[in-house]
Amino acid sequence: MKKIKIFEYDCILFFLTQGLNLGIISTLIKKVNTNIIFIPIIGMIIGFIPLIIYMKNLDLNINQLNTKFFGKTIGNIINFLIIILVTMYALSSFSNLINFIKLEYLYDTPKLFISIIFTIPIIYILSKDITVISRTIVILFFIEIFLFILSFIGVTSQININELLPLFQTKTTSIIESSLIYVSYIVIPIFLLKIFKKEDIQNNKNIKKHIIISYILSNIIAFIIIFSTVSVLGTELISIYKYPEFQILKKVTLGGFIQRIESILSIHFIINLFVFTSFCFYYIKTTLPKFKLYSGFIIIICIISTYTFKNNYINLSFIIPLLILVTSKKVVKLLYK
Fold first, then answer.
1. Residue 170 pLDDT exceeds 50
2. Quick check: 337 pLDDT over 60?
3. Can you count the helices (H) and strands (E) in the chain?
4. Which residues contact 204 (CB under 8 A, 6 or more apart)?
5. SS3 at position 4
6. Comparing 44 with 108, which gets the higher pLDDT?
7. Domains in the chain: how many in total?
8. Does 1 fall in a domain?
9. How confident is the model over 186-204, as pLDDT tens digits?
10. Cis peptide before 166 (omega within 30 of 0)
11. What CA–CA distance (Å, rounded) separates 287 from 85?
């Protein structure tokens, strides 16, 4: 495997934490109401547990770790199960991408046509090596950040703190459940980076510092998106919309006269989902290097996600204990003493 730069690694981590958050607000708001603004904070704290475990064994990739700790047979079975989980992530993100474009952009366009439009570039980018993919992701990262900052600046005048009230009227169990869902969508995808070993990354001396900084930055952005959406639209409007993150962009005003630019600003949601889906397939391709029919596999998965998942959200919180189990050296040693 060719080496990637540490900043490219950071950018990939960023997109993995942002790729599944579109539409999650409308789901969590039903569980915790205005207390959703605390979910990114609680989720970030909880997320440090799997993140610390992730950083424990950076010298080996996840496939090598499993075969080393569990033996070749059981390790390969676990690796295959993880591929199934990654496929579920790809199904969820690609389905979300198609539903978002269908609902907000191309109302009368068949889903299959939209699916084909995005399947082709995914297959093309996966035909390149990781250096090309990572450099492309860096370019998309700068576009993403620019659009995000522009969106936040344009919506600040619409923020109404009163929309955040009342607080602390939700059951603790609902907050914990929502925080775990947040972790499964925002934090756990970082484990896809386990496909890289430490030696696959240039200038990796401070890699743990880079991981923590990127992790905190991603959670700050998630908090800003949730805070802005709730404080502008309010919980009642959010519960109506499938993608309230898009609806808030309709209120963006730049310079007092530039309006109705939500279609441009929301491109960063499409970038997030596209990069996330592509990297899921890259993980599968790298894990199964002898599998020559990955292009056909991608097409099948994309078609399945187009017609199978009608909702933009699948509860993947059950993934947390599995990934903690198979990536933690201490847990494995404890169980197999």
1. yes
2. no
3. 15, 0
4. 6, 198
5. strand
6. 44
7. 1
8. no
9. 887 888 888 888 888 988 8
10. yes
11. 13
Contacts of 165 (CB under 8 A, 6+ apart): 34
Instruction: Say which residue the tokens 């605390």 belong to.
Output: 38
Q: Is residue 224 part of a domain?
A: yes
- Which neighbouring-strand residues pair with 258? 254
| Separation between Cα atoms, residue 203 and residue 6, nearest integer Å | 6
Closest among 283, 275, 280, 279 to 144, alpha carbons compared: 275
Average of per-residue pLDDT across 87-110? 86
CATH of the domain at 146: 1.20.1740.10
- What integer best gives the mean pLDDT of the chain? 81
Q: CB–CB of 50/263 below 8 Å?
A: no
- Give the whole-angstrom CA distance, residue 151 versus residue 263: 11
**Beta-carbon contacts of residue 7 (< 8 Å; ≥ 6 apart):** 138
Structural domain boundaries enclosing 15:
6-335
The reply to whether 154 falls in a domain is yes
Residue 322 within a domain: yes
The contacts of residue 65 (CB under 8 Å, 6+ apart) are 57, 194, 326, 327, 329
Q: What six digits make up the tokens of 270?
A: 């499409």
How many Cβ atoms sit within 10 Å of the Cβ of residue 290?
A: 4
Cα–Cα distance for residue pair 257/253, rounded to 1 Å: 7
Residue type, 226: I
b/e per residue, 135-157, with b = 16+ CB within 10 A?
Answer: ebbeebbeebeebbebbbebbee
Cα(291)–Cα(289) distance, integer angstroms: 6
Helices 267-287 and 72-104, axial angle in degrees (round to 10) = 160
How many residues does the structure list for the chain?
A: 337
Confidence at residue 334, expressed as pLDDT on a 0 to 100 scale? 44
> 148-168, pLDDT tens digit by residue?
888 888 888 888 888 887 787
